Amino acid sequence: MRLAVYIATAAMCLAGSQNEPTATFGTTVYASYGLRGSIYFIHRNSRKLPKFKKLKPVGEIYTPRLNVPPQAFDRGFPGVTDRFEWFAIDYTGKFWIEHPGEYQFQLLSDDGSKLYIDDQVVIDNDGIHAPVEKTGSVQLAGGIHRIRVSYFQGPKFHVALVLKVAAAGEDFRVFNTDEFKPPPNPEQWRFPSTAAK
């Protein structure tokens, strides 16, 4: 049976230029440049991220950003309505880099999480633990890149998942795919060699 998911906010308005519904954290609204989260139930007493390829997803949610600060587990996790413990979410998506260079990422989670950019682990924050934040950096060429954030919630009492980014000379801010969209017309892309990534 598919997991019931809810729309985190009742208002869904059309985004002017791209004419797509606005996707908020935990919504079932599809967004082409948002993050798609596949939800899985995991075994009780799991100590680390599961092998997702061996599991069958029970639902999907979409969001442009991962921003769940540490909070009591019984408040729930946006988009997951049938579980407060022992679930995992595997988020995947794409993002556009207009200014090549080194980017730093911060990943805070309770419990375990990992950040992958172009299939390479940038941050490993796996395991059962209280809210912990780890930092990693990666050199990014201009154009499209793949992103994946794997997360699991083990036992109570807290949940948390926040992903932040900073380019050289910038302060950290919550990573938002809305800020990393390519130009609407592919013919205007400065980095055509990466267009098919």
Number of helices: 0
- The helix fraction, in percent, is under 10%
Order of helices and strands: EEEEEEEEEEE
According to CATH, what is the class?
Mainly Beta
Find the count of extended strands (DSSP E, 2+ residues): 11
Overall body shape: globular
Summed up, the domain count is 1
| CATH 2nd-level architecture | Sandwich
CATH topology: Jelly Rolls
What does this structure look like?
With 197 residues, this protein is mainly β. Helices cover 0% and strands 42% of the residues. The radius of gyration is 17 Å and the shape is globular.
Question: Which helices and strands, and how do they pair?
Answer:
Layout lengths: L34 E7 L17 E5 L3 E6 L14 E11 L3 E10 L2 E5 L2 E6 L6 E9 L2 E11 L4 E10 L5 E2 L23
Antiparallel strand pairs: 1-2, 1-4, 3-10, 4-9, 5-8, 5-10, 6-7, 6-9, 10-11
